[in-house]
Amino acid sequence: MKARVLSGIQPTGSPHIGNYLGALKNWAKIQYDYESIYCIVDLHAITVYQDPAELRSRILELAGMLLAIGIDPKHSSLVVQSSIPEHAELAWMLTCVTPVGWLERMTQYKAKVEALATASSEASIGDGMLQYPVLMAADILLYQAGIVPVGDDQRQHLELARDIAQRFNSLYNKEIFVMPETHLPTVGARIMGLDDPEKKMSKSTAGAAHAVSLLDPPAAIRKKIMRATTDSNPAVDYATMGAGVKNLLAIHQAFTGWDDAAMKQHFEGMRYGDLKKTVAESVVAAIEPIQQRYAEINAEPGYVARVLQEGAERVRPLARDTVEKVKQCMGLFTP
Ligand code: TRP
Questions:
Q1: How does the average pLDDT of the chain come out, rounded?
Q2: CATH number of 4-184+301-330
Q3: What angle do CA 10, 200, 41 make, to 5 degrees?
Q4: Where exactly does CATH 1.10.240.10 map onto the chain?
Q5: Ligand 1: which atom is nearest the Cα of residue 153?
C-alpha cells in the first residue's frame, strides 16, 4: 500500500511561479509514488474577507491550473475543502482539545494580528484566524495522511497538527490518529518577490512587479522581470551578488534544470540587462505549455467541475470514516 500524501493551497490571488517552483511542481512529481490528495482550501481563505464572486472564480481557476501543471486526476484526488463537510466537522472536535495558548503562540497568527492592527481599514481579527491551524490539522488527520509536503513557513502548523493528534490520542486513550510526518520539500526552490527579494513571493502581496503569475502573457512576464530589483553592481558577480540577483538565477535554474557549474559559467560577468532577458525567456518558455494546457482544460465545458466532484466522491468515505471514529471515541451521538 502506498503512503498517503496530503497538501493544501489557498484559492486567493493568482498562482505564481513561486507556488509552482516551491510546491506545485513537486506535487505533480510525487503523485505517482503516493496516494495523493490535493486540497483547495477555501475554508482557510475565508479567515480573511474574500469577495464572493472573486473567491468562486479563483477556486475554479486554481483547480484548472493544478491540472495544467500536471496533477493527474487518475492518480491524485483534487478536492475543494468546503465540498467535504467533514473538514469543518473534525476541526470543531479538534478545537475542543486544543489549548488556546498553543494557538496564540503561532508565529503566523501573531504576524497576521500585527499586520491587521496597523491596517487602517475596519478589517477585524476573526476567530477563524486563531483556529486556522486547527482546521489545517483537521485536513491532515481526516485522511490519516502520513506525509505532508509544505514549505518552511508551514512547519510550525504541521508540528501543531502532530501535537493535537497526540493530545487527542492520549486524552481519549486510543490511537485514533496517525502521526503525520513533517515533510519539507527536498526539491523546490524558495522564490522571492521580484520587487522585494528579502520576502518570499506571495499571492496576497500587492504590487505590479511582485510576482509572475502562471497566467501572465509573455509581454507581462518580460516586463516584470526586467523591472526586478537587483543591486548596485552592473553585472553578475557570484562573490558579492545580492538577494535580487540570486533570486533571478534561482528562477532560471529551477526552470531550466541547469547544474551549478553551467549556471556560473553562463552568467558570471553578465550584465543585468542581459541576465534579465535570459531569465525572462526561460520563464516564458516554461510557462507557455502550462498556459496551453490551461486553455485546453477550460475549453472543455464542465471538465474541471467534474474532476472536483470525482475527487470528492473518492475521498469522502475516508473522511466519513474518521469522523465516525472520532464521534464514537468522544461519546457523541452516533445513531
Ligand atoms: N496553510 C497552508 C498554506 O497556507 C495551506 C494548507 C491548508 C495546508 N491545509 C493544509 C497545507 C493541509 C498542507 C496540509 O500554505
A1: 94
A2: 3.40.50.620
A3: 10
A4: 218-296
A5: 15
